[in-house]
Amino acid sequence: MDICRIRLEGSISLTGKARLESSVKDIIDEIDKAIKEAIADGVKLNELEENKTGAKKGGPQIRDAKIRVINLSVKFLKEIEEEANILKDNVGMNKVDKDQLLKDMYDLMLNAAGSLQKLGLQEMIKTVTQAAEKTPPTTVEGILMIANTIEDKLKKIKGKQETNKK
Question: What is the tens place of the pLDDT at every residue in 136-166?
């Protein structure tokens, strides 16, 4: 009976991986949409990539888009935390499977960070990689710490965007 429970719990994490992939896709789709809208409104893509996305360059549409993708990203990070905690509680899971799921979570966070950077959220990839240097992404604790570091940075950016909106 324990074997069935372990397999079921493992499959929950695999289902969770699909949920995480879907969340990253939502973030990327929202960023792509925001970039297309900004370009249509006259914002130059190279200005976004060069991080010149303040009110003078990006305008209110970029600021609003940043807030939208930050909200999606925070939701994604909460899902990462949920899945990491499932792995933490699942002591009977095959180590190879667990290691792969942790690697996948890290890769998804890195992918999301790269997309956020395209919208002008500065140094998101660097934030992820520096956090990974401090706490390895090969452990549940490392994944949780990296997710918390990203979330803290996103909340600061969101606060700044909302302050600039007023």
Answer: 999 999 999 999 999 999 999 999 888 877 6
CA 53 from centre of chain: 20
* Total domains in the fold of the chain: 1
Local structure of 93: helix, strand or coil: coil
CATH number, domain of 41, equals 1.20.1420.40
Name the amino acid, one letter, at 42: G
Torsion, Cα 129 135 137 139, to 10 degrees, reads 180
Helix, strand, or coil (residue 56): coil
Per-residue pLDDT tens for 99-126? 888 999 999 999 999 989 888 888 999 9
Phi and psi at residue 54, to the nearest 5°: -70, 180
Model pLDDT, residue 45: 65
pLDDT of residue 166: 63
Domain range for 48 is: 2-165
φ/ψ (deg, to 5) at 30: -65, -40
Closest CA to 151 of 112, 115, 120: 112
